[in-house]
Amino acid sequence: MFRKTYADIQIDNLEYNITQIRNHLSPGTFFCPMVKANAYGHGDVAVAKALEIMGVQSMGVCLIEEGLLLRQFGVNAEILVFRGFDLNGARRILEQKLTPVVSDWSHFEALDQIVGRGSSLPEFCQIHIKFNTGMNRLGFGLEEAQEVLEYVKERKKFQVRGILTHLYKGEDGIHSEGRTAEQLRRFSELRAVFGSLNPIFHALNSGGVISQIQLKKYGHVNAPLTTFPWGVRPGLMIYGYNPLDNTGNELF
Ligand SMILES: Cc1ncc(COP(=O)(O)O)c(C=O)c1O
Whose CA is nearest to atom 6 of ligand 1? Predict the structure, then answer.
């Protein structure tokens, strides 16, 4: 480049957005801001540290490397790693106390080879399990839910902290016949399957959170988005982008 280029990141604005989202959530709702992809280009270490100072207990990355970098810079929060991993990756995840999101059988197999298999290896591992309800990118099929349940029940070393899915069009969440409503109806079936393990059920990205805010505002409390306190994983919106509105209008 032949010119100076810089981005001026206002951590105050991030804090404002986080506070507004939290104000909207029922107390105790699982809250996992996404800091993947270098915090969407905003500087993941600085963002993660600011989130920690605000008391955020969980955050999400895509790659193991992203989680390792945050640990290297002293971030202690729970860091969910959403992308897959092999045996080597599983080892790094556990060594650095990252939290694996398991989305296919090979992830279970990799973890199974390490967890509880030696004095220097952890005896237990907290996991989140991802199901595909329509995004068709990652995750177990709903028809595998019973098999997954039996698998984890047979292996007490896996502590199921969360069951999750990812919305592919959270922006349409206000429509009762939209894709989000359909995905959440499917996802709800897992509450009956995994209820005995008492996991967190998390699903909402920014589009989902904003749709939920709108539904509540207009008193629609019977929609799939509002009938259960789904855990939230906002990305875009914490950085100031409203995927439902590109007019620059303020959401809060
Ligand atoms: C699993 C998962 N959850 C949440 C998000 C956040 O989505 P958004 O940036 O639309 O809020 C992403 C981003 O792609 C994701 O992959």
Answer: 235
Looking up tokens 């909207």, which residue turns up? 24
Pocket flag, ligand 1, residue 235 (CB < 6 Å): yes
pLDDT at position 235 over 70: yes
Angle (nearest 5°) at CA 8 between 4 and 13: 170
Q: Where are the alpha helices (DSSP H) in the chain?
A: 11-24, 36-41, 44-53, 64-72, 87-95, 105-112, 145-154, 179-194, 206-217
Can you tell me the distance from the alpha carbon of 107 to that of 127, in angstroms, rounded to the nearest whole number?
Answer: 11
What is the domain class of 84-239 according to CATH? Answer: alpha beta
Write the DSSP assignment of 130-183 as a string of letters: EB-SS--SSSB-GGGHHHHHHHHHH-TTEEEEEEE---S-GGGTTSTTSHHHHH
Q: Give the nearest ligand 1 atom to 238 CA.
A: 11
Question: How far apart are the C-alpha atoms of 200 and 191, rounded to whole Å?
Answer: 10
Residue 203 scores a pLDDT above 70: yes
Closest CA to 174 of 131, 225, 217: 225
Domain ranges for the chain: 84-239
